Target: Adenosylmethionine-8-amino-7-oxononanoate aminotransferase
Amino acid sequence: MPETTAPAVTDSLAARDSLSARDGGLVWHPYAPLNGPAPYGVSAASGVRLTLQPPDGGVPIEAIDAMASWWCAVHGYRHPELDEAARRQLDAFSHVMFGGLTHEPAVALAERLTAIAPGPMAHVFFADSGSVSVEVALKLALQYQAAAGRPRRQRFLTIRGGYHGDTFAAMSVCDPVDGMHSAFPGVLARHVFAPRPPIARLADDETWRTDENALAAWESEFRSMASAHRDTLAAIVVEPVLQGAGGMRPYHPRCLRVMREVADELGLLLVADEIATGFGRTGRLFASEWADVAPDVMCVGKALTGGYLSLAAVLMTAQVGRVITRSEFGALLHGPTFMANPLACAIAGTSVDIVESTWKHNVSRVSQALSRGLAPARELSSVIDVRTLGAVGVIQLGGGVDVPAVTRAALDRGVWVRPFRDLVYTMPPYVCTDADVAQICDGLIGAVREVHG
Model:
């Protein structure tokens, strides 16, 4: 056999036996068909870098994770303090039921969360994931209104463009057009959707800029819609200041203050979904702080464990706790099997400690580097907007992104990115160096230029 044919045979065998090939048609991936584009295999992760195996079985690629694994791995991978927290808890016990039992990692984490949360949060309910925490918060609001003598209040007020999770109740308060409402007709509850607020910018002097006329019009319509439905509404549910999966779209903190005022006037709960925005991502420890607003209920997740394990929490005020306690049932009607998993809580406690001691410096530094590094994208013909907020950087195109092509082009530049719709964006780990952020920005801009011009 001629020597020149051997590499081709070897490459063919490698592709056939690769992790991606074994995965294909067997494992579902998020929002992807079974016969969709082959995924990249991960063989290692350390610091802010992933080692990826191409679907064709080619040479491994080392790339900066510009996604922080969907925004949760804020400390990077194999963080020594988080690894040690996991080992310590494994040496004790990794799981016990939370019904009738408690343990130090859960109590200590609840104490930490209530201490750092915006406003006087007094109680914590642990959940499995962000979506489940939203489900719990919605249940909580309905129980609260029933216990307060307003059982007809069974609907929620939110804004278009929001995203709160993939479970049924959470989906029902996601955007009714770009969400999944049309896929599940007759199943999702019908809630009240106000217009999305006008987009806003945070200037270098930390003042917010937006179209004042559009902002006033939005406020008027929001107040009007809330008043029109006041007798049926239980709560206002919102991602504070930044809408994430709905378009990485920041809005003026004044809008959140309006929501707080309306909630107080009409006897509604204000539920802040801080799953994506919490723990420093927007340039405040919690995004609600941009508006100096304290919610009645707050959901946190994602960065809570630094990406090590799935865990979320629902925080609430003492008033909410009192009303639920004196209700017909006397309890919040939810109880996951893995509620307050000790291993996850132990890691989360250490993650929160790390966030609190490092986020302000790191997020400020990453934010400045993103602003500098992404600025040249404005010169591309395919780009209609470039924006940053905290450790979030966005390049918005005039049309849909060719996701496989942009992903591959970014990987050629040593950057893992996962675009969606018309956005090529990054929410990198906070521990990225300035050089890492510069590489991310160059990789995103280069990929957009190569694929879309």
Remarks:
- Residues 342-374 form the longest helix (33 residues).
- The CA atoms of residues 143 and 329 lie 9 Å apart.
- The chain has 13 helices and 18 strands.
- The chain has a mean pLDDT of 95.
